[in-house]
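Exam review. A common question shows you a sequence with its structure tokens and asks you to describe the fold in words. Practice with the pair below. Do the first one on your own.
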Amino acid sequence: ASSRARGEKPDALAALQAANEELRAKLTDIQIELQQEKSKVSKLEREKNQEVKQIKEHEQHKSTVVVTELKVKLHEEKMKELQAVREALLRQHEAELLRVIKIKDNEIQRLQTLLNAVRDGAPDKVKTVLLTEAKEEAKKGFEVEKIKMQQEISELKGAKKQVEEALTMVIQADKIKAAEIRSVYHLHQEEISRIKRECEREIRRL
């Protein structure tokens, strides 16, 4: 039995060593596999970071393009507005210039007519021309005064209407106040009469 026990002990030790070696081999394999997984994870993180960087750069480029397009569009709109304002001012200037030219032409024509009348030596004709001009000036002045008077009359009518409305409101307020005073007066008279009656009854009782 002792020999058998000594024979089994090396076998058990050998089996334990074999199991230990197998565990070490498995541990090595697991460590190798873990390192491989870490390498894969690191690679995926680098790829992800690279992809995120590319996306950011793409979005930034897109934003830059959009901002540039907006700036160009805004500049074009400003230039269109400036062109429209410039054209409007030019039309206004041309219209004003034509108006001044027309006034000057009329004045020149009037002076030319007057000069021709003087050259012809016809005092009556000169007098007629001057009288006609005076009538025209008087007519223009009358029209201006007429418009001014009409405006003043309109303003006076408006003021009169406001005064009448205010007077009506004051009259209505006075009527309401008078009615309130009459009502209070009647109440006071009734109260005085009541007090008198009570005093008379009290006097008769005493």
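Now try the second one, then compare your answer with the model answer below.
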Amino acid sequence: TAAAFITRLLRAAGGIGEEQLRCFRECLQEALREHYKHHWFPLVPSKGSGYRCIRINHKMDPLIGKAAGMIGLSHERLFQLLPSELTLWVDPFEVSYRIGEDGSICVLYESPQPGGKTTKPLESRTSCKEEWRIGRSSPSKNYNMMTVSS
């Protein structure tokens, strides 16, 4: 889910071919899988969450940078294409993100946790506006919300 989201951000920015985007997504998925291999705790989902955080904040996250390098994108180009402030939390049962330091935390993926907790499907959510579409680096604290779709 996290790799697909970053790929959608790149696609929306334009200028990258579909084959390159597919390769980027696959490389990022593999990098995340390898990076999280010994830091994934479904019985205690919040354990290791800091390690699994993907962050762009005046520095490019190394996992995103590595995947981008595989398709010939420099860090400079990535900074032009992606939000300047982006945080993604990749945890068992949930992937969420925030654009800007003051932005809302938006859920991209959520699945039932052990113990019978159920969640709403992503399509029914109306909690987040895709601020990157209008070029803000840090969204205002009061903005209208819309559904994030894949």
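Model answer, second protein: The longest strand covers residues 85-91. Residues 80 and 99 are 15 Å apart (CA to CA). Full marks require stating both points clearly.
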